[in-house]
Amino acid sequence: MNLLWKCIVCFAATLTFVILYQLTAKGSATAYAQSYYVDSVSGNDSNNGTTSTSPWKTLGKVNATSFAPGDTVFFKAGSTFFGYLAPATSGNSSASIRFDMYGSGAKPVIDASGVADPIGGEGVAAVQIYGKEYLEFTNLEVTNNPVIDTTLGRVPDNKDSYRLGFLIANDNIGRTLNHIVIKDCVVRDISRNIPYQSKHYTMGGISIYHYGANSTWNDILIENVSMSNVSVTGIYEIFYNWNSKIWNPNGPNGEPANDYNLRSSSIVVRNVSMTDIQGNGIAIGHTNGALIDHSKVSRFAMIPDEYFVGIWIHNTDNTVIQYCEASGGEMNGALRDSEGFDFDKRVKNSILQYSYSHDNAGGFLLNGLDDESTNNTFRYNISQNDKTVLVKRLNANDKFYNNTLYIGSGITSKLFGIAGSSGTFVNNIVIGNGTTKYKDTTTVVGGTHDYNCYYGLTNVLTEAHSLTVDPLLVGAGTGGQGLHSLNGYRLLSTSSCINIGIYLSGNGGKDYFGNRLGMYDTLTDIGAHEYGDGSDLTFSNFESGTASEWTAVSGTWSVENLDTYVYKPASSSDAITYTGNTSWANYFVSAKVKITSANTVAGVLGRYTSSGDYYMLRLNKVTSNVELYKKVGTTFTLLGSKAFTITDGTWYYLKLVMSGSSLQGYVNGQLYMDITDSIIGSGRIGLRTVNGMAQFDEVGAGHN
């Protein structure tokens, strides 16, 4: 071999070593990740399955394969797979194992109808996640209906077994299991062919189950899931059974009892919509720090003579339920529960906010069924035409404030029932139909009850600062389906409920409609609407997940859910977006602004013209100043600047007030700029970032 060829061979070997080293240095999950394909029509389990032209055929082949972290199994769109999916291996903290779809068309269906219980006692689930972790399931449709088409060669399942869509089980693994994602999936027709018994409580769409010493879950996300025709419960997170406290190996038969430490963590249910649920909608228990967000349950509690609720929690700490809707809880036979929401036994330090309950047979809220439930908050919610009892018990440290409750004509209901109230009940509007009772004569109401407005109720107790007049709402009782159907519950400008409530610190910062609270003072309105925001020209809090009214001039703008929905550019380049009308002249523009990277300049635009002229009140991270600029043509003129310390990740409230030639700039309610300039007379509002990243929320404009 001559010298040239020796050099070439040596270089190739060195290059190969470098590539392999770089791959393995990132972890085997990245270096050796493999894709697999499954097609129920054209596949063959004798294929290698590694390309879409040589796919496998059955779930049995998938279940028998040991996948590695980073692998992805793709099911062909439009396929139907009979049986159940049960991954044999886990991913790891560096890379999950993913199950997704390929091709175009309907989501692939996993149909477990007629399948015998594969484990014995745990249940028949279309997707069985048993003792595994770091798994992600996306774009799948699952069903599990015991009504069988015998022409397909399957027989009815007559066994007394649980039937589920997804079962996520940690059964005596002895440690916390992590990271399960179910996203963009459909769960439908999860039925039973046996009479309902209490032990079937956890049958249903998605059941998260843990049992045994130190056996818990962490980091479960259920997002963008549509669910229908499910028996018994839509989504359930549970330790052994709903009433248990903790594993106690010395308990009777080794069953759980008498402690609190066994809690799953970081359980998130977001953007889930479900209808026709035989029992409970969403029930989360034995957790710490769970979140139920932007989810909807309609038509539930259809099994007679049982205890079911739309959205409820039990044995939980630090749970937040927000932007949720629960409706259509039925009464079949003896009425037991059927409330929209429930903070049941042993719930502590949890919050229900910005949610909507309507047309439920059992009322709006069931709360605190034992004295171990404490320090829970219910604020800025709306209840419409909930029946029987609106509020069933408030414990001593519970706070129920700034809610609006409406009972229409012909509906029998009362405000308080069961154990009454010993908590704080303030700043609420309660509208009855003239015969609505405040409470029964035997119901005890104590604690702090004041600064409320009662209208159309009988036997209301005397409260020092409360009103008994028409609160003058835009259109009470006109709410329909959806969180955004409730503009009728805004206060009219002539309402007596404006500015007479009691200010409460730690109030969440905004009302039901997204209006800011307490930016300039502690004046508080009564009810779920804070009238004083004044953004009568336009207001965007982006809670719909879109910003369709905004037009991007430069940069790519989008709404993202980062704890709350925010509007932001995709990159650090110069980005401008606007909304409004070019005829707007004398008005204010305001927004919450959060700078998230170094060297960023971000702020609000006023009088933005068709030719791109504007005034800009901005935060300059580079110079640590708040600045007021004017742009005319291509010329930028600094009109004013003052020192201001800017901290990354902190929200600042900017407000630019324009009246004739007067320009005033505020940050967090404090006046920093008072300038005279008359060059730009009218225009839209806008947002701009330069040289970095920022987020915007609660952007409004109103007449001065």
Key features of this structure:
704 residues; mainly beta; 38-stranded parallel β-sheet; globular; disordered N terminus
How is the secondary structure organized here?
Blueprint: H1 3-25, H2 28-31, E1 35-38, H3 59-63, E2 72-76, E3 80-82, E4 97-102, E5 109-111, E6 124-130, E7 135-138, E8 141-144, E9 163-171, E10 177-183, E11 186-190, E12 204-211, E13 217-223, E14 226-230, E15 233-239, E16 264-270, E17 273-277, E18 282-288, E19 291-293, E20 296-300, E21 311-317, E22 320-322, E23 325-329, E24 339-343, E25 347-348, E26 351-353, E27 356-358, E28 363-367, E29 377-379, E30 382-384, E31 388-394, E32 399-401, E33 404-406, E34 413-421, E35 424-426, E36 429-439, E37 448-450, E38 453-458, E39 538-540, E40 551-554, E41 557-562, E42 564-569, E43 575-579, E44 587-595, E45 601-608, E46 614-620, E47 625-632, E48 635-643, E49 651-659, E50 662-667, E51 670-676, E52 684-690, E53 694-703
Parallel strand pairs: 1-2, 2-4, 3-5, 4-7, 5-8, 6-9, 7-10, 8-11, 9-12, 10-13, 11-14, 12-15, 13-16, 14-17, 15-18, 16-18, 16-19, 17-20, 18-21, 19-22, 20-23, 21-24, 21-25, 22-26, 23-27, 24-28, 26-29, 27-30, 28-31, 29-32, 30-33, 31-34, 32-35, 33-36, 34-36, 35-37, 36-38
Antiparallel strand pairs: 39-53, 40-43, 41-42, 43-52, 44-49, 44-53, 45-46, 45-52, 46-47, 47-48, 49-50, 50-51
Write a structural description.
- This is DUF1080 domain-containing protein.
- Residues 1-33 form the signal peptide.
- Keywords: Signal.
- The protein is globular, with a radius of gyration of 29 Å.
- The protein is mainly beta and 704 residues long.
- The chain has 3 helices and 53 strands.
- The strands form 4 sheets. It has a 38-stranded parallel sheet that branches. Strands 40-43-52-45-46-47-48 form a 7-stranded antiparallel sheet, with no helix packed on it. It has a 6-stranded antiparallel sheet with strand order 39-53-44-49-50-51, with no helix packed on it.
- Residues 3-31, 152-160 and 241-260 have low confidence and may be disordered.
